[in-house]
Design goal:
Elements: H1 9-16, H2 19-22, E1 25-27, E2 43-46, E3 51-52, E4 59-61, E5 64-71, E6 79-85, E7 96-100, E8 109-119, E9 122-130, E10 143-149, E11 158-163, E12 179-187, E13 190-197, E14 210-218, E15 221-222, E16 227-230, E17 249-257, E18 260-267, E19 276-282, E20 295-302, E21 309-318, E22 325-332, E23 341-350, E24 356-357, E25 368-369
Antiparallel strand pairs: 1-2, 2-25, 3-23, 4-5, 5-6, 6-7, 8-9, 9-10, 10-11, 12-13, 13-14, 14-15, 14-16, 17-18, 18-19, 19-20, 21-22, 22-23, 23-24
Length: about 375
């Protein structure tokens, strides 16, 4: 593998389209709805969007933010890249290709939403992939998989640990069921996996996508049956298109603060402007996360506003000094039915009841104060 640091052609192309929007400036910022008031005087600012891409998750370690992204080319294998940056508002720097999909097998193409995580002292990337499907249903073979860094370098070589057993009957592996957007979290010391999946493989019936959870014995092994904790049943999460639409819950991400835990997820059609975020709240710190009754749903908690279309599939990050909470998410670049998306970031606050207040998406080009502790230049 070529381990040369610096901008690859992929990173330069992605960054070049947004360089003008990325330049920090010392100008008075406009206060974002639902965010802390800016400090008096001139401060360093940035504007959204911050990068091209989708499905962002940032992992902050030793002064750097790490983010994984996939690159797909027609007729070629899919690849996963890891980016490293000191700036939350400029995440797509210093990119290295860490994995290429095999020519054959379950994960040879359609690599989606890689999420890099440091779990139990090791770096893992969870991702979705599949083998080619028929023309009328090209993504029906999507499954969840995991790769692990061979060393403590998140931009080093990775080993493929295979497909995660997200089916319904773990003992026999009989249910090889569609699954994407895998993530992990510890509840009361027990590691769990969460993902978006189907009840069974019936794509032509436009089967809904649900949020599932299962216990894990280690970061790459599911050790028990799955449980469904969220279904797209509320009016604000039902499909918008009555003919070609899809009822879906996807992209679950855990947000914990104090003794409260939330799962923020995406809902409605990902290719439409009505894509938005919903939220599950764990009813008590000791509640069993495998039980649907342990969760209370609210939403939408983040939706189209101020010319920002289809905000969804988010991640969470702290400012470099750890004093601020930020949401990083993708949104569409126009109102058409497509997956042309960019990555955006903004701070959020907390309500009196302990729940997050994401406010509204801040319009493109509006100056926002850079995260506390982030360098203004470089």
């Amino acid at each position: 593998m070529n381990r040369a640091r610096g901008q690859t052609a992929f990173a330069r192309a992605a960054w070049g389209l947004l360089a003008a929007a990325q330049l920090a400036a010392c100008t008075p910022p406009v206060q974002a709805p639902g965010t802390p008031a800016p400090a008096t005087g001139a401060v360093c600012t940035f504007t959204n969007p911050v990068a091209r891409g989708a499905d962002p998750w940032l992992e902050f370690r030793d002064g750097y933010y790490y983010m994984a992204q996939s690159k797909n080319q027609e007729g070629q294998n899919s690849t996963i890249w890891v980016f490293r940056s000191r700036k939350l508002t400029d995440p797509m720097r210093d990119s290295v290709k860490v994995w290429t999909a095999p020519d054959t097998g379950w994960n040879q193409t359609h690599v989606w939403a890689p999420e890099i995580r440091l779990v139990d002292g090791r770096w893992y990337i969870y991702y979705a992939a599949g083998r080619p499907g028929p023309q009328d249903a090209p993504f029906i073979y999507q499954r969840a998989g995991v790769i692990r860094a061979a060393t403590n370098d998140p931009q080093g070589a990775y080993e493929d640990l295979g497909q995660l057993d997200t089916g319904g009957t773990l003992a026999t592996h009989a249910d090889d069921v569609w699954a994407i957007d895998f993530t992990v979290h510890r509840f009361n010391g027990q590691l769990y996996g969460m993902w978006s999946g189907w009840e069974n493989n019936t794509p032509l019936a436009r089967t809904p996508q649900y949020i599932y959870i299962a216990r894990m014995s280690n970061p790459h092994t599911i050790s028990g049956p799955r449980a469904q904790i969220s279904a797209p049943t509320e009016s604000w999460e039902r499909r918008e298109d009555p003919v070609d639409g899809l009822d879906l819950n996807e992209g679950p991400q855990v947000l914990a603060r104090g003794d409260q835990t939330f799962v923020v997820y995406s809902t409605r059609e990902s290719w439409l402007r009505s894509y938005r975020l919903g939220m599950l709240r764990l009813n008590s710190p000791t509640a069993d996360p495998m039980l649907p009754s342990s969760w209370t749903k609210t939403g939408p908690v983040f939706a189209e506003a101020n010319g920002v279309y289809g905000p969804g599939h988010n991640g969470f990050a702290k400012s470099p000094d750890g004093t601020e909470d930020w949401i990083i998410y993708h949104a569409k670049v126009d109102t058409g039915p497509n997956w042309n998306r960019v990555i955006r970031a903004q701070p959020f606050t907390w309500n009196a009841d302990g729940s997050p207040n994401f406010g509204q998406p801040v319009a493109s080009g509006v100056p926002l104060r850079v995260p506390s502790g982030e360098p203004c230049e470089g």
